[in-house]
Amino acid sequence: MSKIAQTIRQARDQARLTALDYANLVLDDFVELHGDRNFRDDGAVIGGIGHLAGQPITVIGIQKGKNLQDNLKRNFGQPHPEGYRKALRLMKQAEKFGRPVITFINTAGAYPGVGAEERGQGEAIARNLMEMSDLKVPIIAIIIGEGGSGGALALAVADRVWMLEHSMYAVLSPEGFASILWKDGSRAMEAAELMKITSYELLELEVVDKVIQETGKSSKEVAAFLRQALITELADLQGLSLADLLENRYQRFRKY
Which tens digit of pLDDT belongs to each residue from 13-60? Predict the structure, then answer.
């Protein structure tokens, strides 16, 4: 198996820790909140409040299931517009109370169904991009599995974007890329080589700011390292003035 194929398999592995797992391992006293106050609660997006080194933190994540039944409940980690609106509600709540925001991202992309489009999928994603660009609290986004398309970017307009070592981040899936470019989805691995989707490739391109090593570590060790890295990074971000925080975030994405 090629290295890129192995990375894709690891990123999609159902045994990987989920956003909810990380919320409970990284934070103390995590309490999940539900609903977008408009239509319904979307199981593909989790969010809530916990403490990190005694500081209140808002966590939002895209949640995949651990088995078929759970995946059906979570829509295989493909959010509907109400999921993104729930995320935005929690981010604005965090801004109101001065809580930093951490997002955990693992999705092949936003749900492309007719109902999702009818309820404003594109608008919901676009609004998150706009609101996150100017959110007046620190934001750290972490790709923990797949980071696919605008569905991932809707939670990744952050001051720092990190990736787990065996994760992937791309404009769309390799299968979709191959289908569009060559009309042949079987050339997905060839497409993946061209797309530069792996953590270290994206670190070199400065699309992400840090890679969290997984090789040779248990899931709990990765979570423990991530917890300490978040404590350190949030302290640095909170040391910036609001003007510098927002300007740095703006410039981070302008350079692309």
Answer: 999 999 999 999 999 999 999 999 999 999 999 999 999 999 999 999
CB atoms inside a 10 Å sphere around CB 137? 21
pLDDT band at 185 (very low <50, low <70, confident <90, very high): confident
Give per-residue burial for 211-226: e unless 16+ CB within 10 Å, then b. Answer: bbebeeeeeeebbeeb
Whether pTM exceeds 0.85? yes
The CA distance from 94 to 97, in Å, is: 5
SS3 string, 25-47, reads HHCEEEEEECCCCCCCCCCCEEE
| Token representation of residue 244 | 């510098």
E runs forming strands in 98-204: 101-107, 139-148, 160-164, 168-170
d(CA 140, CA 156): 8
Residue at token pair 């569905």: 151
* CA-based torsion, 132, 96, 45, 86: positive or negative: negative
